[in-house]
Amino acid sequence: MTPVIALVGRPNVGKSTLFNQMTRSRDALVADFPGLTRDRKYGEGSYEGQRFIVIDTGGLTGDEQGLDLEMARQSMQAVEEADIVLFLVDGRAGLTAGDELIADQMRRSGKQAHLVVNKTDGQDPDIAAADFYSLGFESTFLIAASHNRGIRSMLEILLPSEEDREEEDRADRYPGIRIGVVGRPNVGKSTLVNRMFGEDRVVVFDMPGTTRDSVYVPYERQGKQYTLIDTAGVRRRKNVSEVVEKFSIIKTLQAIDDAHVVILVMDARQGLVDQDLHLIGFVLDAGRSLVIAVNKWDGMDPEDRAKVKEQVKRRLDFLDYADKHYISALHGSGVGVMYESVEACYDSAMAKWPTNRLTAILQDAVAQHQPPMVQGRRIKLRYAHQGGSNPPVIVVHGNQVDALPGSYKRYLENTFRKVLKVTGSPIRFEFRAGENPFASKVDRLTPRQKVKKDNDQKQGPSPKKKRQKSLKR
User: Fold this and answer.
1) According to the annotation, is 453 in a ligand binding site?
2) Where is GTP 1 annotated to bind (predicted)?
């Protein structure tokens, strides 16, 4: 579905300028006086392959009469049609009574509006936006529409990414929480699927390789929808010889991508082996939430159980955020409790956090432990926003972010995980340097400047510059 974005705000705050920048056109008239736009105007734009429709509207004041009242109706009609509402304010003029009236209208409309502080060029953006935070919007963007600054970052947050669009397609095919069950051959994956499903839905036999293809089983439990994915066992590469088994492994890796939460099943009587660690690596590389199920726990004596628990704790120390369950899929002990972990993992993987909250967490983390200095300059991390889900992606903007050491990135991950209470799901960070407003400008010399430059290079420095250089010495 193509998103529809409506631009609303007081007259002369830069709505038409932003409209032209987003559509890469000059369809909207722009002039330095209020009231130029009266009817709502539609345009089409695209960002990173995602198409969207923009609606430019006339200026609102909050107490319209006559012609202004009809213009206000047109603007509110655009708000009703829109999926995303951008409320523009003037960063130079500051907060006005009209802005407060329009903000109240946006709240009463029931639409989730985003505050956009325009005209921040030539001043400190944070100071320009300070007064507007009192309006109480969850997300605030600082832009300079006339210079095309900050618009790409804003669209990146507002528009669904390619991963989000793929997730919507998967949700249409497989409803509810998708749970992938993976592991080595003959560890009890199909037995666990049948136990979770409540009936013998997939074939179970005491022979490795019984399951050849990934089996998707939709069902409902306690009013909630789930889709269980039983997969073929994955052996070490040197042991894989049949062509069918090679395709089965590919299907298993695709099932991991399709899942929201992956349950890795391991055999308690064989202990944690290297192939289990390889499978965990596949799951983490795919960015999926993880639950560890140690199966065949029944019938083991206390000493062997203690050894297995110690091995899991020692070798999976890097997965301290993932829940571990010791179960018997055959008898059903411990299986029902796994649903709590699955739902907690799903909530963490699909969580949406406002930009203001992520930025506040980042600022608190930086205040508690500052980034190191690089070549005499302190690395600056300015703000953070969410860049995707399943896994959660947090995009951090700042200066010299390429020089940020791995230890500080791990510190940020641990801090965000603790504050946001993320369970079972990995968190990915992307660090981006700020936009350079002069990056697209080319320094072109006039013919007269070129001649002067050539003469200066031939003649060397002037006598005046030579005297200044000798005085400095």
Assistant:
1) no
2) 9-16, 56-60, 118-121
Mean predicted lDDT score pLDDT of the chain: 80
| Rounded distance between C-alpha atoms, residue 412 and residue 422, angstroms | 13
Q: Which CATH number belongs to the domain containing residue 200 in this structure?
A: 3.40.50.300
Query: What's residue 60's pLDDT?
Result: 77
Same domain, 188 and 332: yes
Angle formed at CA 359 by CA 358 and CA 365, multiple of 5 degrees? 90
Among residues 190, 209, 184, the alpha carbon closest in space to that of 273 is found at: 184
pLDDT band at 208 (very low <50, low <70, confident <90, very high): very low
Q: With bands split at pLDDT 50, 70 and 90, how would you rate the model's confidence at 323? A: very high
Q: Would 377 be classed as within a structural domain?
A: yes
Q: Residue 227 corresponds to which tokens in the numbers above? A: 């889709």
pLDDT at residue 428, rounded to an integer:
92
Residue 119 labeled ligand binder = yes
Asked if 174 and 291 sit in the same domain, the reply is yes
332 assigned binding-site residue: no
Residue 455 lies in a domain: no
Q: Tell me if 13 is assigned to a ligand binding site.
A: yes
Those residues whose C-beta lies under 8 Å from the C-beta of residue 79, and which sit 6 or more positions away, are: 6, 8, 85, 106, 109, 111
- Is 295 annotated in a binding site? The answer is yes
184 among annotated binding-site residues: yes
227 is in an annotated binding site: no
Euclidean distance between CA atoms 6 and 86, whole angstroms? 6
Total number of domains constituting the chain: 3
Residue (of 220, 151, 144, 233) closest to 187 by Cα position: 233
Q: Is 357 annotated as a binding residue?
A: no
Q: Is residue 398 a known part of a binding site?
A: no
Per-residue pLDDT tens digits for 121-171: 877 777 788 888 888 887 888 888 888 888 888 888 888 766 665 656 565
Q: Is 233 annotated as a binding residue?
A: yes
Does the annotation place 60 within a ligand binding site?
yes
189 labeled binding residue: yes
